[in-house]
Amino acid sequence: AVREAALDVAEGADFLMVKPALAYLDVLYRVKAQFPALPLVAYNVSGEYAMIKATAEKGWLDERTAVLEALLSMKRAGADLIITYHAKDAAKWLRDNPS
What pLDDT, on a 0 to 100 scale, did the predictor assign at position 79? Predict the structure, then answer.
């Protein structure tokens, strides 16, 4: 993955993207460490979204807690921007209760 990022950089990339983000937090970290000057985008793909939705619907976890922790883990791994299907819900949760 870091080799692919290096090829993208050599071709003049404006940003780097890692997907699926949640499964590749280590890759996010390594890519950011290797190329700190470029914005790093984490793409939280539909399968990761569906996984959290399904387990929350079954009552196996709290959706808000799981989503916000997943997004925070991507940020901690080095993401400058996160693309996610959870965006509207996360924005509402953070607006209504930022802590």
Answer: 98
Please give the residue range of the domain that contains residue 77.
2-96
| Among candidate residues 70, 89, 71, 92, the one with its CA nearest the CA of residue 80 | 71
DSSP string, 13-37: -S-EEESSTGGGHHHHHHHHHH-TT
Rounded CA-CA distance 30/52 in Å is 25
pLDDT above 80 (res 99): no
C-alpha dihedral sign at 43, 71, 85, 67: positive
- Whether the full predicted model's pTM is greater than 0.85, yes or no, is yes
CATH code for position 59: 3.40.50
Number of domains in the chain: 1
Strand blocks (E) in 45-98: 81-84
Contacts of 72 (CB under 8 A, 6+ apart): none
Which pLDDT score, from 0 to 100, does residue 1 have? Answer: 85
